Amino acid sequence: MSENSTTRFSNRVEDYVKYRPAYPPEIVDFLQNKYQLSSEKLIADIGAGTGISAALFLKRGYQVIAVEPNGEMREKSLELLGSYKNFKAINGTAENSGLENASVDVIIAGQAFHWFDVIKTKAEFKRILKPKGLTVLLWNERKTSCGFEQDYDKLIIKHAHDYVQVDHRNINAADIASFFDPSPVELEIFSNHQVFNFEGLKGRLLSSSYMPARNETGHKAMIDDLKILFEQYRQNEMITINYDTKLYAGRL
User: Fold this and answer.
1) Are 238 and 121 in contact (CB under 8 A)?
2) How far is the C-alpha of 234 from the C-alpha of 122, rounded, in Å?
3) Which of 18, 102, 147, 182 falls 20 to 30 Å from 72 in CA-CA distance?
4) Residue 208: which of 12, 76, 5 has the closest Cα?
5) Taking the CB of residue 203, how many other CB atoms lie within 10 A of it?
6) Are 125 and 95 contacting, i.e. CB atoms less than 8 angstroms apart?
7) pLDDT at position 166 over 80
8) pTM of the model
């Protein structure tokens, strides 16, 4: 992780918590059925952020260590999830997690892998995983099939600082296959969505690190365009954002 990638969400924690999509709970069922995960397994959530992916497993009784370099996000995860006795959050990165050799059964990385240094991360994951340990990469990928989704994406491209450079869709299936090589990797896709009024849609937009924050140049013009977009597509004062939740699983 670069220094920029570890600090760029510091001023967006509240919007991130309120407006980023969760992951479908069916993910846990899938992993339990397909890979025999069970709640005695120790999970390391790498690039854990505010704990969105960690919460998915904590709710099902798993023990989770969140590894997160951003202090503001790590503190928020402790605030939100500290009541779970099986939760711990530490300062670390994908390349230098601070975890012991062969200490975890499963690694998950939700909405984070595209920030990692792939070569160093693979070495670190192999170091901390137990033999035959599982690695799971997760993304909520916004769909761009309907008119609103396409125009919303155009708005992001128009107003973003570096969206095209840092968009997680820059990581494709071949990149992920290369990361797991020579082991196979499996892709499973789940449906996911969020429903927002205008304030919620605005918060969702501002939760992304590449959009102008409230005190930055370009913020007002972006929000003005968002209002126009909302008025054009709203139904009963609400907008739906649809996602494909993509899960890649394999053993390194």
Assistant:
1) no
2) 44
3) 102
4) 12
5) 19
6) no
7) no
8) 0.89
Is there a contact between 26 and 190 (Cβ–Cβ < 8 Å)? Answer: yes
User: Is the predicted pLDDT of residue 176 greater than 70, yes or no?
Assistant: yes
CA dihedral for 177, 125, 140, 199, sign (positive or negative): negative
Element (H, E) at 5: helix 3-7
Tokens found for residue 9: 């969400």
* Spatial separation of the C-alpha atoms in residues 52 and 45, rounded to whole Å: 10
At 91, the amino acid letter reads: N
Radius of gyration of the chain (CA): 18
Max Cα separation, the chain? 54
* Contact in structure between 149 and 244 (CB atoms under 8 Å): no
Is the CA virtual torsion 250, 163, 77, 189 positive or negative? negative
Q: Name the percent of the chain lying above pLDDT 70.
A: 92
Q: Which amino acid is at 186?
A: E
Q: Of 162, 157, 155, 144, which is closest to residue 225 (Cα–Cα)? A: 155
How far apart CA 46 and CA 239 sit, in angstroms, is: 31
Cα distances (angstroms) measured from residue 237 to each of 15, 152, 166, 228, 233: 20, 17, 31, 13, 9
Instruction: Give yes or no for residue 2 having a pLDDT over 70.
Output: no
247 CB-contact burial (10 Å; exposed 0-12 / middle 13-18 / buried 19+): buried
Q: What is the pLDDT of residue 215?
A: 85
pLDDT recorded at residue 75: 95
Q: Which two tokens stand for residue 228?
A: 């126009």
